[in-house]
């Protein structure tokens, strides 16, 4: 039997600058492999980042900060994202840029604190009474509409759930029927219904139906074991900011857990320190009771030199807090003026007292061989075929200009190849687009040579 294949179009629609990053690319001893997991070169920086990941995992890094410092285009953001990949999607990772703190609607310190709270996770374990099984019957029962007329309304719904051990028939409210419709539940699906709240969760299609179609983008799950009515441990992952936002304008019950499903759309409204202190107390109580576990995540602040003296001072206090994430800064500046001051210069534009607190990871410019490997990797990620001569030419361009500029030429070169009736990029395509566009250094040189022809 011929099995057809359907490819996702999501990947081809949006490929970001760091789509190829899958991790730090370290071996089992923590040494960097020259090219692995989407990263090339920068062995020392990657090994240092590996030590940071180990400290985060062993919970010995909370409230500390790391600075990635190096020239533009040396992989600082890539290493920060690789750290996030190594930690996994259960550890919160909140990226921001230094200039984000400047808003006309909200205080600078409030923006920082909000992002701090986004980077701290809370894993809540609850034991709930649930009905779980494969849907074998789903029958809505209609009655005459109480408003009169010819319309009918659903008064209740009869649902039968079966497991490997037995089956049970339930009579559910119309509101739960709406939840079933929202989850698109049908006969043959495995679901669970919370006995107290009536919340419905579709887990997938029963694997008894796995041979129903030759090709189907469906997740199949085994028939649940045990009784239909049981106690089940449910794990919820939220961030402290989620709790702040849910409690800022609460609806329904006053218990923190009851508000998880009622998170409002984020609006630019300040959350008071008093509210945060109250939430911290409740969080501490849940941790002491063993109901919840704190998961310190990563707050990544790129272009940290854009922060001013006030926000740097506030960062001191925030880092010393009992509940603080791991903070990773990145900057490409050398010695420069600290923003918000008139004459205070410092390395990387960061005050010396904060700089003393940081573990600094240095990134160095790529050599030509590394650039060629990265260009091959990017071409592969973007689904482009490229000849070795073309890669060599782009590597030379990257050495003279920058790696970022060389990567930018890949797509125009591919379009030129298509116009010339080829699917692969050749040397002539790179030379053609190289003559059409200018890099920053060439443009600056032309401006210098012709400065009398430009307005100043």
UniProtKB/TrEMBL annotation:
Q: Name one GO cellular component term.
A: nucleus
A Gene Ontology annotation in the biological process aspect, one of them, is: DNA repair-dependent chromatin remodeling
The cross-references to Pfam families, in alphabetical order and at most eight, read: TIP49, TIP49_C
Q: What is its EC number?
A: 3.6.4.12
- Keywords, A to Z? ATP-binding, Cell cycle, Cell division, Chromatin regulator, DNA damage, DNA recombination, DNA repair, Helicase, Hydrolase, Nucleotide-binding, Nucleus, Transcription, Transcription regulation
Localization, per the record, is:
Nucleus
Q: What class of enzyme is it?
A: hydrolase
Q: InterPro entries, per this entry?
A: AAA+_ATPase, P-loop_NTPase, RuvB-like, RuvB-like_C, RuvBL1/2_DNA/RNA_bd_dom, TIP49_P-loop
* Catalytic activity, reaction form: ATP + H2O = ADP + phosphate + H(+)
Q: Give start and end of each AAA+ ATPase domain.
A: 62-365
The molecular function terms in GO held by this entry are: ATP binding; ATP hydrolysis activity; DNA helicase activity; transcription coregulator activity
| Main location group | nucleus
Q: Which family does it belong to?
A: Belongs to the RuvB family.
The role this protein plays is: Proposed core component of the chromatin remodeling Ino80 complex which is involved in transcriptional regulation, DNA replication and probably DNA repair.
PANTHER family to which the protein is assigned, alphabetical: RUVB-RELATED REPTIN AND PONTIN
- Its name, as the record gives it, is RuvB-like helicase
What organism does this protein naturally occur in?
A: Callosobruchus maculatus (Southern cowpea weevil)
């Amino acid at each position: 039997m011929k099995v057809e294949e359907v490819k996702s179009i999501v990947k081809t629609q949006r490929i970001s600058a760091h789509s190829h990053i899958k991790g730090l690319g370290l071996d089992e001893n923590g040494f960097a492999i020259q090219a692995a997991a989407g990263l090339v070169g920068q062995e020392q920086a990657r090994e240092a980042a590996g030590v940071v990941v180990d400290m985060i995992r062993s919970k010995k890094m909370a409230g500390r900060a790391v600075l990635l410092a190096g020239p533009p285009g040396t992989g600082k953001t890539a290493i920060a994202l690789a750290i996030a990949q190594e930690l996994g999607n259960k550890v919160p990772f909140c990226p921001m840029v230094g200039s984000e703190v400047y808003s006309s609607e909200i205080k600078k310190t409030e923006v920082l604190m909000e992002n701090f709270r986004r980077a701290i996770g809370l894993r809540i374990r609850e034991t709930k009474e649930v009905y779980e099984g494969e849907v074998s019957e789903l029958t809505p029962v209609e009655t005459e509409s109480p408003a009169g007329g010819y319309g009918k309304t659903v008064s209740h719904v009869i649902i039968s759930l079966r497991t490997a051990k037995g089956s049970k028939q339930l009579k559910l409210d119309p509101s739960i029927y709406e939840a079933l419709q929202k989850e698109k539940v049908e006969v043959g699906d495995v679901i669970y219904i919370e006995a107290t709240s009536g919340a419905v969760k579709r887990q997938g299609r029963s694997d008894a139906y796995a041979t129903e179609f030759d090709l189907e983008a469906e997740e199949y799950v085994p028939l649940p074991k045990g009784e239909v009515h049981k106690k089940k441990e449910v794990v919820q992952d939220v961030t402290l900011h989620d709790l702040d936002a849910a409690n800022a304008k609460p609806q329904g019950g006053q218990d923190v857990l009851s508000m998880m499903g009622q998170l409002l759309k984020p609006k630019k409204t300040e959350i008071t320190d008093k509210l945060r202190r109250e939430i911290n107390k409740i969080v501490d109580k849940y941790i002491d009771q063993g109901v919840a576990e704190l998961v310190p995540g990563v707050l990544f602040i790129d272009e940290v030199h854009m922060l001013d003296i006030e926000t740097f001072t506030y960062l001191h206090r925030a880092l010393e807090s009992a509940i603080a994430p791991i903070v990773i800064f990145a900057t490409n500046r050398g010695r420069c003026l600290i923003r918000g001051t008139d004459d205070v210069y410092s390395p990387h534009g960061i005050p010396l007292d904060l700089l003393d607190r940081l573990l600094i990871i240095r990134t160095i410019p790529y050599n030509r061989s590394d650039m060629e490997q990265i260009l091959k990797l990017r071409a592969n990620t973007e689904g482009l075929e490229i000849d070795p001569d073309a890669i060599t030419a782009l590597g030379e361009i990257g050495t003279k200009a920058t790696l970022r500029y060389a990567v930018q030429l890949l797509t125009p070169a591919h379009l030129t190849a298509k116009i010339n009736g080829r699917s692969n990029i050749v040397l002539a395509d790179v030379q053609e687009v190289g003559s059409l566009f200018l890099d920053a250094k060439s443009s600056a040189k032309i401006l210098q040579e012709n400065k009398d022809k430009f307005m100043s």
